[in-house]
Amino acid sequence: MRILLVDDDAPTRDSLAEYLTLLGHAVTPSAEAVSALNICRNHDFEMVLSDIQMPGRTGIELVRDIKGLSFTTAPDVVLYTGHADLELAIGALRAGAYDYLTKPINLEELAAVLDRVAEHQSLLRENEKLTDHFEEVVAEATSGVRAELSQLRQQFAQQAGLDNIGFFSEAMWEVVNQARLYHEDRDLPVLIQGETGVGKDIIAKLIHYGEDSSRSPRPFVDINCAALPANLFESELFGYEAGAFTGSATRGARGKIDLAKGGTLFLDEIGEIPVELQAKLLRVIENKSFYRVGGLTKVETDIRIIAATNLDLTERIEKGLFRSDLYYRLRVGSIIVPPLRERTDDIVPLALSFLRAFAAKRGKAFTDISPEAAAVLLEQPWSGNVRELKNAMEWISVMHDAQVLQPQHLAGFFGGMQKSSSVKERTSATRKADQSKKSRPTDQDIDAALVATGGNKTKAATRLGISIRMLYYRLAAREQNEG
Fold this sequence. Notes:
With 483 residues, this protein is an alpha/beta fold.
């Protein structure tokens, strides 16, 4: 074994070293605990044999120090002392010593301890090998399971249409699992809330169709509540009887509720529905019946209501623009779709999916996104959410052609967005630009920062006091001007 021998008494240290060497062990001597600890940090030993009573740090303190180090296989520490003190022995063992000897050391006892240490070390190394093997097996199995799960998720997402809104983040899979749960109960109304562009309509279809949109024979009928004038909304929703109003068809017409019979009526932008019609909609949900405009006959219906909004309905309730009873009836089933900026795990995979699809459609070569371009994408606020990201990738497929998306391809899109902002925003931006003009880095500043950081753009941006997105934008703009 490799043994570290620690004793401040030179004659004792030398005689023990000679005996251990005769037994075939490799011995490294040390005169005190501090140097012994430094040796332990840089070399591997199976055993540390140390006196307890030494100047400076004691053998017990050395045990505690050694236990604080990190080893592949930790050495066993055996302490010895000339004082046959039971409390001292117990203190050594509590500190983590493997065994305890008293001086003068009995060589037979020492030999027995050496054998036990050798056996213990052999068991530790064997256990380490088994642990490593187990971890490799687990890692391999886990990798396989993750790959299979990823494949199943992708297959499911494609069937359900989720590949258009993002399905890589845990936040979105919570949404998906909620939708799958609500799919099982057709009597349950559902309110989907989220910002514009997050994909509320796709979640609504997932609730209706379940995992495969090709298998459901039930109708899915949608109506955009914000797109209809108030005077046409009632007839569009409930239908009308012949002669119900001037210009109505002689035979009347079926409304969206009729068309959705046996299936789902999706009310998009429910917050915009006229207040006077909200009580009628509530009766449809609760009683499964309604009257057409100009009609006296109650019409029975079997529909499920799914509603969606990007508005704060509680705020509209306070303003008298939305009925609280309708709100609480709709949100029996509730889903909140998080904005894209809160689920960054979806941004780059979604962008790549959109980019490849648009590239294939237009015969372009895009197949990948560079890390630098990915960093730019991740820095965007994406106020338009998935819709904005999709538009960005379509614009790039129109304007550029390359195998890998680079930051310079994005510069024009985001620059164009800035130019199309409101006059107020432009004025504010100009004012801020004027205020910070003196501190804006020049091209020479940028070049110097890149040289100083060895070309590391992230560090260069920090050094310049600007965002990584701004640095990429400046570089791309300069490249275009030079080209």
